[in-house]
Fold this protein.
Amino acid sequence: MIVRTHSDFAAFAAVHAPDVRRVAALSSLATVFQTWEWCAAWWRHRGGRGRRFLALEFQENGFAVGFALLFRDPLTTNLRPIGDGDADYADILAHPDHEEAVVRALLEWLCADGKRFRLEMKQTPPDSVLRTHLGAAQAAVSGVQVAQIGGEVCPVAALPPTWEAYKSQFGKKRRAHFGYYERNLSKHFSDVSFAVADAQTLAEDTEAFFALHQRRWNARFLPGAFADTSNRRFHFDMAQSLLSGGFLRLHTLSLNGRVEAALYCFHKGATTYYYLGGFEPEFARFSVGSVLTARAIRYAIETDHATRFDFLRGNESYKYAWGAADVPNAFVVAGRRGAGVIIATIGARATLAAELRLKNVMHGAFGGAGALVKNAKKETKHG
């Protein structure tokens, strides 16, 4: 297998964007965070700042069968995946018929032409291309060193074929809540409507989502994810890009003509991903978050025929109330055998530990990531 490197993003995009889209569409292991729509939007806003683009193209018989979309960390010789810090899953892309060969070629490149680099993939799921074939590929490549460090969990709910079957897994009281909260809204508001953003409503819906998310977090004396104008621009561009590729699911709940709850979700293959939510704190007593989450799950089952509803990183208690179970990510470090990988692994452990400690503190104080799972079955108002 031939490995070609590309360091100019614009030139790479002009030629290979269709190839990346093709491989991502064929791969059942690729998440929405490996799509061209996500990666290109991320680089447009997060690229630069000393980060140097580097794409590895894996060719078999002159045909592109895989890609590793990476950047070089400005302070080290470490390579990280496009999306690092914002993406909940990291991986490489590979055609289903060439997955193990692509992983092996990646490790061989790290021991040869890329020997001055180390690969760091922070959020790698167990069913990723990389982790699925890492053991066999590592055994076939001499001189490579690989470390896997336990990372954050992503609670995922398995979805049956029908909404009724999904509800049946819960107790009687929980099942009753599904209908009660929505009926209660109809008693207090003359117009209750649900929608999924399209090209005509996207600008208005994203602005409403940003505002709702900010109001909820500002009420806790926290800045929120969209306090910074550049972050709002980033996510609006991301939403546009994902919508153009058919991956965006921005759900809204409007009461008397005004959006009061929004879920920023994505969908690819058999999985719907819940990325962020925003809810009007004033209407917490109506459980608008629970109502809209139920609608999003139902949409995933009935419209997208999803088999998984992925709540992504963080063990917030409300996720388990929807039947989710933990799926652990891993921090993968790989490179030519030597002190460099050992040092990078030590740094990775320290970084991950610090991030998890911060999330646990936030959860204890504000109900954010790290909540005690013993409260998981309680009905919550969340976002």
